[in-house]
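Incident log, structure service

09:12 report received: a user says their structure output differs between two submissions of the same chain.
09:20 pulled the input from the user's history:
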Amino acid sequence: MEQDGREGARPVYVLGAGFSKAISHLMPVTSDLGDQIRSRLSGVVDVRLRREQSFEQWLTLQLTPMPFLQAFENTRRAADGERVIAAIAEVLDDYVSQVTAAPLPEWLGQLIAIWHQERAAVLTFNYDTLVERAVNALPPVVHRGNSTLQILGDHVTYPAPAAPPAQIMGDTGSPHVRDSLQLLHLHGSLAWYWSSSDASGSTLIRVRERGALGGDSLYGSDDDFNATHTLDRYLIPPVTSKEGYYGSYLAVSIWRAAKELMERASSLNILGYSLPLEDRAASQLFTHFPKHLTSRVADHNPGTAESGEGIVGHLATLGIGSQVDARGANAISEFVARKLDQAIIAVSQATAFTEFSRRGVDVVVALGGAWGSAEPTDLYLLVRERDGAYEARKIESSWTWGGNSTISFRERMLNMQTLGDTALDDFLTVDSLYSKVSSGEAFAFFDSLRIRQYVVIGVEKATLGGLDVLVVSTAPVG
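09:34 re-ran on a clean worker, output below:
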């Protein structure tokens, strides 16, 4: 995976409406959203666009006091604008619910795994919580000593408003984690609420994201004990001048964190975002990307530097070099496929392979299932089956504590249960894994509990139950 000698350097990804559109064709871009708002508010708010006028321009004018209008007229126009902002959340809620019912796209599960492995910083301009729901659908796992932690969408989304205390069975306090990806919602989130008259943001609160793409809610009850849903959504609206919406403490925290991440970026990957130059805050944020690096773009229509159009043209206007990695309708899934190939090839170059005095030690994988499942997070050994393919076999938790630390986990498994024709040499070791990946080929295995195949995209040395082991990171491939 990507390396950078600068302290705190991390790969940065920027997501726009095109990213959500790649997850599902149902998700609207801004112009589509304007059409939906016009239909929903017919007879309530007259969303009438002049010729060549965009939805953003119309909403900007609604929210801008005009000196030639009387106070009550400006107030009425502003109220219509606020009603439109509320309707944006309502429309997106409907779309997100529809998309959540569909299966998790394989490329999205792979991208989440790559982000987790890279400890990537993900900056999104989208209000929707599809990334969080993708994390919930196929949770990455962090290995910590003798335990594992399943990562959920709430764990990786920060800075963020505080959440109400857990009040139902199965709820979690959802502490944030630093050893996975980090998601920053630069323009607010459907899961964030506040009293919109609160300029400082002291009333900001979030609901925990309980949805999972391709599945049901993470837990059945959705009682709103704190009446959070009666508040207004915290969304920085799609207007051409957003400066008046960045006054809350949260907006300041998020954007300052984003600036630091951009300054230290080891790479910049822009997925489905056009970077409109009239969005001055976003444009200036991009100027903090190190000038000696070249950004990477995946976009339906990235434009060109010569024309000054599209994301490539807008970056050129700001003095930022770019390379188009993928274009067209499948640009983002193609980008992910290439990233996955790069991660697979890089496995053999990992320093973890040289960190063992003897390399005949066990290879362990931590796998996370659907939240609330019977096997939510466990450690497994990889065992070769009769057909030559490898399968994950669970290490009982009691085997990771105490005992004779000179006996490997595979020896304990053979001693403690019947494994049929399985022999000691059938277990994957550091040596056998290295011999398989040293040529750059992918190493895949099957998890019969989750009925899913995975490929190894990273390795690291760890200690488990007093034994040195090689822990592998994985991405789904089926």
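09:41 both user submissions now match this output. Likely a transient worker issue. Closing.
09:42 reviewer note: The first helix runs from residue 17 to 23. The first strand starts at residue 10 and ends at 15.
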